[in-house]
What does this fold into?
Amino acid sequence: MRTKRVVGWVLRLALALVFLAAGASKLAGEASQVTLFADIGAGQWMRHLVGVCEVAGAVGLLVPRLHRAAAAGLALVMLGATLVNVVVLGYDPALTIGLFVAAVAVLWLTQPVSDRDPLVAADR
It folds into this structure.
């Protein structure tokens, strides 16, 4: 069980770094992100919304009480990104699928077994 917990934390930290950087680039208005969201046709408000969700999810991954909700939210963001990549942009969805799988893996690795499980009690 200790290995599962360590892998879960390492994955949470790695995802937090990825989503913090991705969200920050959207919120900073990097030219590539502005162009990408213009190509999507959803407007720049969507870039801001996704950026806020990614940064909030990154922070949430590092908070024990919030990490499962954050992982679920980021998985949903990546599901939407995958659909947009395939249907709207015609891009290869490998990266967004990989991030989706990683977020779901956090959910699986950190699922509570029971309230008496010492790993659950340690996170509270």
The mean pLDDT is 92. The two ends are 17 Å apart (CA to CA).
